[in-house]
């Protein structure tokens, strides 16, 4: 077997990550290991900027980081302590505050008197933001500034538990749909090859970073940037199979050995992304702030959240129906059930597996772009989602598309709703405990099939 396919995939990975990164964004040993960063900029609406909204950076804005006591879900500040550090925004509006105190609960407060005349916080309750940081973690914060009078929020920290639970359930549904976009590819790969791909986390990170590269570095609108990332994600998935996994399958490499190879390949990709992208979390240039929201009782959703949920649900349903009723989907299910029997009926097994990798790469890239819109893009975001992806696939039933969807929605909602009664540091514990209980009753998962051994 020629080594050229394997060399080609490593080369393609480096080329995909070889972006003209800004010098101030690259990883540097001189940067503090744990920082709070962000950018102060206010929005000038179309009526004042001549045709489209514009963002004006704020220089000299003062941002303070204080010790704080946060609510269990880390969504509100209960009390403030001493000032830990102070940052002043530069000419481009960026600021950075080092945290010598280490991990814990903090509050980030913006000094309104340091802002230019007429600039205010859109929501007056968001002048001070809660921030929970783990050991060695850095986070970005965003103040929604506008030119004119700020508003007030109708959602307070003292709302009844059932209203908070309703909001968290909707947020959990959105999170679960994003997990589902990432999980369905992993489930299909396992179903057709039996491989537990630990490098799937880096496919998540790669998709988000590619979308960030096109959007921020090259100035392509995020919608088109996400589509480009989706195409490159599909290409990367196909190249990984053709250059790495297909040669190993033809050598009859065991699944355990291939899983260990996936760990090594994932580490390689993780640090390649770190080298090019840097260790500082970043946001996309588009849709970082949306002033309008749609309210349904206690639930308030921004347009981007509604679009993300609608697109995710539609795509997942279409993929599941396509796998069930299209000719390609039937071929994938045939390879998943019995590759040898599928090959004897004329199915090109290697081609189908490569298409599964491409489909998984495309879906995970789009899901990662959605996650980057709701949170931030970082070089560790894939690792943070991997456990939840595995839990979703296992709960729904290994190798099943509908199972990955159902398991992801269950995990997403359970994680966020549990913070109404459970500390947010342990928010994954109730979801994983429920998963264990369900698997004890139904070991094959919610949509899995019983298999006879022996």
What does this protein look like?
- The protein is of the alpha+beta class and 454 residues long.
- It has two domains: 38-139, Immunoglobulin-like; 163-441, ABC transporter involved in vitamin B12 uptake, BtuC (Orthogonal Bundle).
- The protein is 52% helix and 15% strand.
- The protein has 13 helices and 13 strands.
- It has helices at residues 4-17, 46-49, 161-193, 200-217, 222-250, 255-277, 303-325, 327-337, 339-344, 349-374, 381-396, 401-417, 428-441, and strands at 35-39, 41-44, 54-57, 62-70, 77-88, 94-98, 104-110, 119-121, 128-133, 139-141, 145-147, 294-296, 299-301.
- Strands 3-2-11-8 form a four-stranded mixed sheet.
- Helix 1 (4-17) runs antiparallel to helix 5 (222-250), helix 3 packs antiparallel against helix 10 (349-374) and helix 4 packs parallel to helix 6 (255-277).
- The longest helix has 33 residues, at 161-193.
- It is globular.
């Amino acid at each position: 077997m020629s080594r050229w396919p394997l060399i080609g995939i490593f080369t393609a990975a480096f080329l995909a990550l070889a972006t003209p990164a800004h010098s101030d964004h690259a990883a540097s040993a001189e940067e503090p290991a744990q920082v709070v960063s962000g950018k102060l900029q206010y929005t000038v609406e179309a009526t004042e900027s001549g045709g489209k909204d514009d963002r004006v950076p704020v220089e000299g804005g003062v941002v303070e980081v204080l010790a704080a006591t946060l609510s269990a879900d880390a969504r509100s500040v209960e009390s403030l302590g001493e000032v830990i550090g102070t940052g002043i925004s530069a000419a481009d509006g960026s600021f950075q505050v080092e945290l010598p105190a280490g991990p814990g609960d903090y509050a980030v407060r913006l000094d309104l008197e340091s802002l230019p005349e007429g600039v205010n916080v859109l929501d007056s309750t968001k002048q001070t933001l809660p921030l929970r940081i783990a050991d060695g973690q850095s986070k970005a914060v965003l103040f929604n500034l506008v030119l004119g009078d700020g508003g007030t929020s109708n959602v307070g920290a003292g709302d009844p538990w059932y209203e908070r639970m309703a909001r968290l359930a909707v947020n959990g549904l959105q999170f679960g749909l994003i997990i589902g976009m990432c999980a369905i590819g992993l489930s299909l790969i396992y179903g057709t090859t039996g491989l537990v791909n630990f490098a799937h986390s880096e496919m998540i990170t790669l998709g988000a970073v590619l979308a960030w590269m096109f959007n921020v570095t090259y100035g392509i609108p995020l919608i088109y940037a996400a589509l480009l990332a989706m195409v490159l994600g599909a290409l990367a998935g196909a190249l990984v199979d053709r250059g790495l996994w297909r040669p190993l399958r033809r050598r009859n490499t065991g699944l355990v050995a291939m899983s260990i190879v996936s760990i090594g390949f994932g580490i390689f990709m993780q640090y390649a992304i770190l080298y090019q992208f840097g260790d500082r979390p970043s946001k996309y240039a588009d849709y970082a702030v949306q002033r309008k929201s749609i309210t349904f009782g206690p639930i308030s959703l921004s347009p981007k959240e509604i679009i993300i949920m609608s697109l995710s649900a539609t795509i997942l349903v279409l993929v599941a129906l396509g796998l069930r009723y299209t000719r390609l989907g039937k071929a994938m299910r045939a390879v998943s059930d019995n590759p040898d029997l599928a090959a004897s009926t004329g199915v090109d097994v290697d081609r189908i597996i490569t298409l599964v990798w491409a489909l998984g790469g495309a879906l995970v890239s789009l899901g990662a772009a959605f996650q980057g819109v709701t949170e931030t893009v970082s070089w560790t975001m894939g690792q943070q989602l991997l456990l939840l992806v595995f839990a979703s696939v296992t709960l729904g039933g290994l190798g099943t598309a509908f199972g990955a969807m159902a398991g992801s929605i269950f995990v997403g909602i359970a994680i966020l709703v549990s913070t109404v009664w459970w500390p947010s540091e342990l928010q994954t514990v109730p979801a994983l405990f429920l998963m264990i209980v369900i698997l004890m009753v139904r070991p094959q998962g919610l949509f899995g099939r019983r298999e006879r051994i022996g």
